[in-house]
Amino acid sequence: MSPASHSLLLLIASSFFACIGSLHGSRSSAGVTTRVKLSNSGSGGGVSKVEDASDFHIYYGNAFKVIKNGIDGKSYLLVQNDSRMAGRTKYCTSRIKSFIIPMSNYSVDAAFFPVSFFELLGLLGSLKGITTDSVASQCVLKMCEAGEIAMINKSDPQQVQQFTAHFISNIDESQYCNYATFVPSSENYPLQRAEWIKYLGVFANVEARANQVYNAVKENYLCLAKLASIKSARLKPTVAWMEYNDRIWSFTKEDFVLKYVEDAGGENVDASISKMTYNTSNPDDLDQLHAILCTVDVLIDGTSIPDAGSYNLSTFLQNVAVADTSCFAFVSNQSVWRFDKRLRSATALDWYDGAVPQPQLVLADLAEAFFPTGNYTTTYFRNLAKGDGFISITADTCFRDSSTAMEPTIVPCQ
Ligand SMILES: *[C@@H]1O[C@H](CO)[C@@H](O)[C@H](O)[C@H]1NC(C)=O
Ligand SMILES: *[C@@H]1O[C@H](CO)[C@@H](O)[C@H](O)[C@H]1NC(C)=O
Ligand SMILES: *[C@@H]1O[C@H](CO)[C@@H](O)[C@H](O)[C@H]1NC(C)=O
Ligand SMILES: *[C@@H]1O[C@H](CO)[C@@H](O)[C@H](O)[C@H]1NC(C)=O
Ligand SMILES: *[C@@H]1O[C@H](CO)[C@@H](O)[C@H](O)[C@H]1NC(C)=O
Ligand SMILES: *[C@@H]1O[C@H](CO)[C@@H](O)[C@H](O)[C@H]1NC(C)=O
Ligand SMILES: *[C@@H]1O[C@H](CO)[C@@H](O)[C@H](O)[C@H]1NC(C)=O
Predict the structure, then answer these.
(1) How far does the centroid of ligand 1 lie from the alpha carbon of residue 20, in Å?
(2) What is the CATH number of domain 235-397?
(3) How many other CB atoms are found less than 10 A from the CB of residue 212?
(4) Domain of life here (predicted)?
């Protein structure tokens, strides 16, 4: 181990112990004497504490912060730009990467990347490069069209290394020194995924904003979950969340999805079946599948399709290979849903973007699906049984000044 990395480890270790306490006064720890910085960005700065997420941790030193990312196994050492450490510190190893913060520019690999986290933090102004315009954000699209965000070629090393940070969500991608992995979808539960807003907040010294958004989202989510649990005490609809691929239907096993269904007051059909996949070419399988579907009140069809416009109730019924739907309560009661109501392209669904930092909106949609009031317009889900179409996301529906932060949508909850 080099002397330099040895002293860095000491620094990081000391931050674990000094942690939050050392922020409240000017003092030196482990030989680092720097003036205390609480706010650097003019928008509050502050400190974020991870409450719910399990795949990352944040530690604070005097002039630096460390994010430990449990998914890529890296420590991100974030050094304040006006500290003495900033000029001297540069790490880029398999375990430690350093960044000078606040970052004045960054780029993203936008494939399945939830850019709306940046919008909620008010950071679109420094987004300068993007790998694709297949992205489910009208305001990012508008900035792309206006030339404020440059299209970059992800296979060109020069292009992806020109900004302070390049955020990626695929940890298998080859990594340059400015790459930072952002993986909210690694978490098991909806609120844990949303809390990753704090991860991005530390890169820009906007912890206060990150905390504010997360607290508002969490409070609303918990309130809606409580409301749903009251409704479900009277009647708990049975929900099947499934997808069709290559003539096979499978019930979802994804934890965050199962959690959404429970929190919205539904019962996952998965809990009562042992076999998760059904081959529609096999008559016995098909019979079993039909029997299960006869017990289901609400069906959610998560099948990936190239063209949302051509997928309707008939398509679904064709895929379950059934002519007589008389025992399907979800058909007679018109409750067959897909999460592709808002989309830019076949792969850029807002479900993978805006829904990640704002799980309260997903919960409100599901609660409406499970306990219809007729009063609530869903955000991400459309009802195939009622012929709901999809909404195509385009630049001309961005009505916000992109340099300001987007406000989370708080759903009335009484
Ligand atoms: C540090 O970053 C802030 C915010 O971007 C900027 O205003 C300031 O000039 C930078 N300071 C130095 C020393 O680079
Ligand atoms: C992207 O960069 C790679 C490597 O430099 C190059 O081979 C490829 O042609 C570029 N693609 C486009 C669309 O420019
Ligand atoms: C991004 O910001 C860094 C640090 O402020 C600067 O050195 C670099 O030139 C900027 N990159 C671009 C492409 O503007
Ligand atoms: C589904 O069943 C058909 C007919 O039995 C069979 O040919 C096919 O391989 C099965 N598919 C899978 C993925 O098992
Ligand atoms: C579903 O779409 C197909 C073709 O895309 C069309 O022929 C059919 O009439 C539609 N069915 C319903 C119920 O809208
Ligand atoms: C249909 O929905 C209504 C209320 O939305 C409910 O009372 C009824 O039990 C449902 N019927 C079936 C068969 O699920
Ligand atoms: C629909 O909304 C109105 C006004 O917000 C409310 O008074 C009414 O109770 C709601 N109806 C249902 C069925 O929830």
Answers:
(1) 23
(2) 3.40.50.1980
(3) 19
(4) Eukaryota
